Structure formats: C-alpha cells, structure tokens
Amino acid sequence: MVQVRVVALAVDSRAQPVVLLKPILEEPGMGTMLPIWIGAQEATSIFLATEGAQAPRPLSHDLMKTMLEALHADVEKVEVTRIEDGTFYAEITLATGTGRLVLDSRPSDAIALAARYDAPIWVNDDLLQEAGVPDATETEGVVDEEAKLDEFKRFLDDVEPEDFQG
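-> structure tokens emitted (166 positions)
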C-alpha cells in the first residue's frame, strides 16, 4: 500500500468531477496520480472537508461522522483496494470500543470521511500502477492546482440544491 493525499478536485472535459490522489512522498509534476471519477455530491463533500468549510446543513458525510462519534468509533484509515470493470473499491477501517471494523465503501465516501477525520488514505500498489497516470501538472503544461481549484469552484457555483435530492 502507498499512502496518498488528495491533490486536487477537478472537472473533466465532460463536466464529471474527479478526485486526484498522489503518493505523499512524490513531488508535484513527478510520479503518478490516481484519478477517480466521483459524483457531484461527493465532490462537494470532499471539497468542503479539505477546505475546512461547513455546509449550512450537515451533508451525508457530516452525519456519518456525527453517528460514528456518537458510537465512540473513529476512522483509522481508508484504503482504495482495487478496480474491477472500471469501478474502484475501497475500505474504511474503524477503531471501535470492541476492536477494528473494516467496511466496504465507495472511494468517494471513504475519502470524504477520511478528510473529516484527517485519516490516512492508502492505495494498493498494483492499483496505482494499473490505473495511475503520469503527473504532468508542471512538466507538460497541464493546468496547475490553483487553476483546477478555480474550475471546481465554478462547478460548485452551478450546483443547485435539487442536485442533492436522492
């Protein structure tokens, strides 16, 4: 497993949100990034958590954190474990009063919770090699992190409350 960090949230050419994960020891513009396409709600949730911002009303991941705290559980770590038929899989490891509990999760939900707990995020080595892309953010003139963040903020400006209805 390789420990990673969220380096950016972006929107691809089809206006689909993507979270970019990068090994914590790699420099910008070098090494590999793992793009994981996610939903708009999850992107908003990850963005708010990584920016330390609060939504006017609790989002689903805020509610999950409140429930875990009420049950005296803590998110210990998150692992993005595999990809099958283009779908990523993750696990959330909880520390509970009765021991560790590992839960199957979508990566977007796991990352949103990890951001709220400042929990480490890990990616399977083989998965990073298989699905990772070269980080060319500086070396090949790809839009820098600030530009990606600005693009994502513009995306958030267009999100309507109805987009969050189930």
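Residues 138-143 have pLDDT under 50 and may be disordered.
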